[in-house]
Amino acid sequence: MSQALDILKSAQRNGIDANMDVLYQKEQHIPGSIQYNIRRYYAHHSWVAEDTGMLVYHYNENRPKENYLELRYCITGNKYCAERLCGDCGQLPTLNCSGKHQTIDVFTFHFTATFLHQFVHNIKVSNRKDEVLAFKHPNAFTKIFPLCNKKRNALDALLNHSYSGSLENIFVNAKVHELLLYSIDCLVDEKENGFTCKFLADESGRDRIYQAREILLQHIGDPITIKELSRKVAMNECYLKKGFKEVFGTTIFDFYQQQRMEHAKYLLYEKSLSVTDVSALLGYSSISHFSAAFKKHTGLKPCDLLK
Fold first, then answer.
1. How far apart are the C-alpha atoms of 240 and 210, rounded to whole Å?
2. pLDDT tens digits, residue range 41-52?
């Protein structure tokens, strides 16, 4: 694990290893949003390391605006090819292709205290997880943890998906939130925690909650009511609301609004769309309603993100 730890410790400085070449890189630096950097490296020498994660909690009581939470992951053993269409090839070099490269994949996700405030502003801080998200924990720390299947699957999904443009942005935001949820859980116990809602003990019950989440993401620009959502997943409205809150740590409404506003940031900042166009794409009846919702959830005015 020591090699992977060295990579994670140097990830913030982007000085990974002189013996590795960058094969692929994707990053996002939208003001007021999640900052992330995904890099895939080709190592010129054999590499054996355990997949590892790191949670960095940076806290300074005297400079609260500089507080942040950072997640870093290092996974090995994947293979990369710049041409996705040849994914079914035999991986043998040809005249015009050098074949797939075994990679070392490094992920960094940076969350500011202002961004994380949306998850804790209306709850009573009662445990360490809440303390960290609300930046009430008094000491900075770093936690190392192994990658469980849930985290590994989310990271793999970020590397291997077929989305592009706006749909890619929605998909990536959702996966990053999954990683935040699973990694914060590690602060208490690496093992699976039991559910308070008894119906979640059944796999089919949990599947309906995850299905509801996917449907919400599919309706980013076409708002859906909880009643309609409950019908689509064949679950009682009350069970759906309670189950969603327990599984994802937020209400259906707050999750949906947060995802819409994150997508709005992308459309405004990365795609340079007008406030009018973004408001219409997200299904708002008026620009004023959209602007008010955007300011409430992000602390920014939509025009602040226009380049």
1. 10
2. 876 665 556 788
